[in-house]
Amino acid sequence: MSRLTQKLKTVLPWFAPAAALLAFAAWMYLSPEGALGKLDAIGYAVCHRIDARSFHIDDRQLPLCARCTGEFYAAGAGLLFQLFASGRRSKLPSRGVLAVFFLLFFAFGLDGSNSYLYLLKQTSRGALDHIPTLYTPNNVLRLFTGSGMGIVIAGVLYPVVNQTLWRSLDSRPALSWKTLGVLAALVVFLDLLILTENPAILYPIAYLSALGVLSLLTIVFAILWIIVMRQDNAFEHPRELWLPLLAGFTLAILMLLGIDLLRLQWTGTWGEFPGLSG
Q1: pLDDT for 183-200, tens place per residue?
Q2: How many CB atoms are located within 10 Å of the residue 138 CB?
């Protein structure tokens, strides 16, 4: 271990909480007012937030579009589900499950590409009227293909995280056919509830999807932090993860804040990109 790395390990436990607090305070100050306004600021950094492609609580748009809502709530729910169902299982799913993942990824890409081409036709003012599209996109397909992609993200990320963190590993697949079936059934059930557009459903989904974004970024940055600090497979207990998670959270907030400020400077609005609707 280099002297620099050793010094960083000595200083960071004192520096990291202050950095996290400052980053979070800056983001809270600059983001829109209210709880849903803070969620909007998270979605604003990763989503186009086109109003017509989003679900609404009365007249208020959710923090993420229909596709991103499905993707990030399902990814967050999938990680939480595996935390209880799979523990420290660290092996990637079987080839059969990975084949299902590929189909879900393909459906996500196909519907997303078709939806983007359709948007170009709507916003090009006649210049691209003849772009071929397979079908008229809709929020139902966006939600289901997005949540399918969320399952893929969670199913691949969870065992990779376990492979990086723990000194003692469970070599079984993190997601079996049985657990995939349970998770898929849960996500489909939640998708159907979302399609009712009942505020009692959409409010918690707004939180779960936006916090899913923050959680994924925090986990990814925490893993990068662990790799940079050469702490792979060095942990025995979850309480030992407080510093990597705090560092990951700080970097995630700084990333969201940076993207928010750039987009706000560019567009002048917390809503969708000007000129995009449909």
Answers
A1: 999 999 999 999 999 999
A2: 12
Residue 56: how many CB atoms within 10 A of its CB? 12
Taken as a whole, the chain contains a residue count of: 278
Enumerate the β-bridge partners of residue 235.
166
- Cα separation, 223 vs 248, in Å, equals 8
Q: What is the pLDDT of residue 3?
A: 62
Tell me the one-letter amino acid at 247.
Answer: A
- Neighbouring CB atoms inside 10 A of 196's CB total 10
DSSP 219-276: HHHHHHHHHHTT-TT-BSSGGGGHHHHHHHHHHHHHHHHHHHHHHHHHHS-SSSPTT-
The tokens for 183 are 């998770």
Give the tokens for residue 110.
């196909």
Residue-wise pLDDT tens digits, 98-120: 999 999 999 999 999 999 888 88
What is the rounded CA–CA span in Å between residue 138 and residue 117?
13
Rounded (to 5) percent helix, strand, coil in the chain: 70, 5, 25
pLDDT for 245? 93
Tell me the pLDDT tens digit for each residue of 5-19.
Answer: 566 666 666 677 788
Q: How many CB atoms lie within 10 A of CB 162?
A: 20
Pairing of strands 56-57, 89-91: unpaired
Element (H, E) at 139: helix 139-165
> Residue 94: left if φ>0, alpha if ψ -120 to 50, beta else—which one?
beta
* Higher pLDDT pick, 138 / 20: 138
